[in-house]
Amino acid sequence: MELSDLLNRVPASATIEMAQKARDLKAQGKDVISLTLGEPDFDTPDHIKEAAIRAIQAGDTKYTPVPGTLALRKAICDKFKRDNDLDYTPDQIVVSCGAKQTIANIALSVLNKGDEVLLPAPYWVSYAGIADMCNATRVEIKTNIAHDFKVTPEELDAAITDKTRLLIFSSPCNPTGSRYSKAELEAIAKVVEKYPRCIVISDEIYEYISFSEEKHFSLAQIPALKNQVVTVNGMSKGFAMTGWRIGYMGAPLWIAKACAKLQGQFTSGACSIAQAASAHALNAPLDATMVMRDEFLKRRDMMLELLGEIDGLKLNVPEGAFYIFPDVSAYFGKSFGDYHIQKPTDLVMYLLGEAYVATVGGESFGDDNCLRISYAASEESLREAVKRIKQALSKLT
Ligand SMILES: Cc1ncc(COP(=O)(O)O)c(C=O)c1O
Predict the structure, then answer these.
(1) Domain boundaries, the chain
(2) Among 348, 329, 342, which Cα is nearest to 392's?
């Protein structure tokens, strides 16, 4: 069947594929523990659900303005001011069906064929897929566990050129959980400001799941970068609202306008009910979010302790999000039965087939040594999963 060039350029999402493999095995009756998806295992807080119910009852069920309801865009501006000391006006905000669409909107609005997209690796899988969809040229900057998977200003300086149109990174980061400090972001900003054509997508969707003592810092807080940075955030992670599909950006006006124009031909405004619930959530105290954050922190510490007992795994201490990204390269060259481990995905397939634990190989995040374990699962499942992983790894020789 003939498909578009655009579609042929887009890779399937590895995380979604692995989640499906785990589901298939489960359907065959296998006791699979899936640690693949980037989704909080908590339910959306009741007060947010109630706001949605009120919106339905009030007849808030019609098309909304393409960039989002004014009520939500105002709530987002207030959030940016309250949490990030950022001054955006409602016309600089565009609400989309998830931050994934937000990022795609920006990329599709500014990229032309051959433009370079800088991706500090490991990166979130969809950055690569979206860059490919835009026919842009991906330039990966490899980082490693010894540097906490963070790009240094020197590495950035060596990779950025006049052809660089986009730099995309997340902090806290999916898949590594690393988080850039204010000082690190200031050093990065010094490099970026030399390239005014380079737009930066600062993906802060894990902002509220941060374990650092330091307050979250947004790259857009640096005045010199005001016209270059788009701050991306969303409801999925911090409010356990993945299914509601609300993401948003605070952007220089011309980018916000471009994205709204584009979105007007795709999805139009996001779901009216989800927008009403999101406005309520952003205006309300963050108590439920902080309870989830504390629980993630407890699990992170537990995972580090349990995984730390496995000799072959190299770990860093993630400062946010809900992932552990161990370096598993010590197992490369080892075998068990028909399984021969040469790369992370070989180990992922081994752990799935042998231990019934699903994880995701680092390759899809632009990393050749690690795999991603999501700890957005119950403590009991996590303990059992690590027990099985340990047992399976001990059989490799
Ligand atoms: C770093 C990062 N950015 C953006 C997203 C997109 O989130 P959503 O489209 O649910 O808002 C995700 C989801 O996994 C993510 O991990």
Answers:
(1) 5-43+288-394, 60-283
(2) 348
What strands, in cross-sheet order, belong to the sheet with 371-374? 323-324, 371-374, 360-361
Averaged pLDDT, 279-296 = 97
CA distances from 239 to 216, 230, 236, 247, 266 (A): 17, 21, 6, 12, 26
Whether the domain at 5-43+288-394 and the domain at 60-283 fall into the same CATH topology:
no
Any atom of ligand 1 within 6 Å of the Cβ of 247:
yes
Gap between the Cα atoms of 291 and 172, Å rounded: 18
Average pLDDT over residues 350-365: 94
> If pLDDT is split at 50, 70 and 90, which confidence band does 6 have?
confident
**Does residue 364 line the site of ligand 1, with CB under 6 A?**
no
- What CATH number matches the domain at 5-43+288-394, 3.40.190.10, 3.90.1150.10, 3.40.228.10, 3.20.20.60? 3.90.1150.10
Distances 374 to 45, 296, 300, 303 between C-alpha atoms, Å: 21, 10, 10, 10
* pLDDT tens-digit map of 264-274: 999 999 999 99
Q: Are 171 and 204 in contact (CB under 8 A)?
A: yes
Q: How confident is the model over 242-247, as a mean pLDDT?
A: 98
Choose which residue among 119, 237, 245 to substitute to test ligand 1 binding: the one with the highest number of ligand atoms within 8 A of its C-beta.
Answer: 237
60-283: what CATH class?
Answer: alpha beta
Q: What distance in Å separates the CA atoms of residue 184 and residue 78, rounded to the nearest whole number?
A: 26
Residue-wise pLDDT tens digits, 98-121: 999 999 999 999 999 989 999 999
Q: How far, CA to CA in Å, does 305 sit from each of 226, 297, 301?
A: 41, 12, 6
0.90 exceeded by pTM: yes
Task: Find the mean pLDDT for residues 68-72.
Answer: 98
Ligand 1 within 6 A of 374 CB? no
Cβ atoms of 256 and 249 closer than 8 Å: yes
